[in-house]
Amino acid sequence: MSFNHFDASGNAIMVDVSQKTPTMRTAIAGALLTLKPETVQSIVSGRMAKGDVLGVARLAGIAGAKKTPDLIPLSHPLAIHHVAIEFEVDEARGTIGVMATVRAFERTGVEMEAMTAATVAALTVYDMCKGTDKGIVISDVKLHYKEGGKSGVFKRED
């Protein structure tokens, strides 16, 4: 079974996973926002003009995971069973870490869904705070962990 996204003529194709055995798949991905410390303090204290920034970002991240095949052309539509978005806030440093966990019993992994969820959650924080803080940076979007399927477990060591 080939897992190449190109056919013999070099055309982009969706990989055929129909012969793979479904297994429980889990992926955890993250992103990091760097903001002014006073912006983070306003988010935590609920003083941002646009409302509950992290609550809205959580919902956006969940929706992002579910919309991944609409955004990434060759990803497969999956029956996602679980999406969780968590935030690690450091007011003194002015950072908000986003961690997205996605689970599904499927034939292919959920890494793209987890990375999309983390990115969309981070973009939502940016959108809700850009009027107050023009210098927000989103960085370090990466896969931290994945399990399930033939390739087994991946765990980032940093």
Which properties best describe this structure?
5 strands, 4 helices, alpha+beta, 158 residues, 5-stranded antiparallel β-sheet
Structure summary:
This protein has 158 residues and is an alpha+beta fold. Helices cover 29% and strands 29% of the residues.
Q: What does it look like?
A:
This protein has helices spanning about 35-45, 55-65, 70, 110-130; strands spanning about 25-35, 80-90, 95-105, 135-145, 155. The model has no long low-confidence stretch (mean pLDDT about 95). The radius of gyration is 17 Å and the shape is elongated. It has a five-stranded antiparallel beta sheet. With about 160 residues, it is α+β, with helices and mostly antiparallel strands.
In terms of topology, how is this protein built?
Elements: E1 23-34, H1 37-45, H2 53-66, H3 68-71, E2 82-90, E3 95-106, H4 111-129, E4 137-147, E5 154-155
Antiparallel strand pairs: 1-3, 1-4, 2-3, 4-5
Helix pairs in contact: 2-4
| Fraction of helical residues | 25-40%
Q: Which parts are unreliable, with pLDDT below 50 for 5 consecutive residues or more?
A: none
Number-wise, the strands total 5
Order of strands across the widest beta sheet? 2-3-1-4-5
Largest sheet: 5 strands, antiparallel
- Rounded radius of gyration (Å): 17 Å
Task: Figure out the total of helices.
Answer: 4
Rough outline: elongated
Cα end-to-end separation: 33 Å
Order of helices and strands: EHHHEEHEE
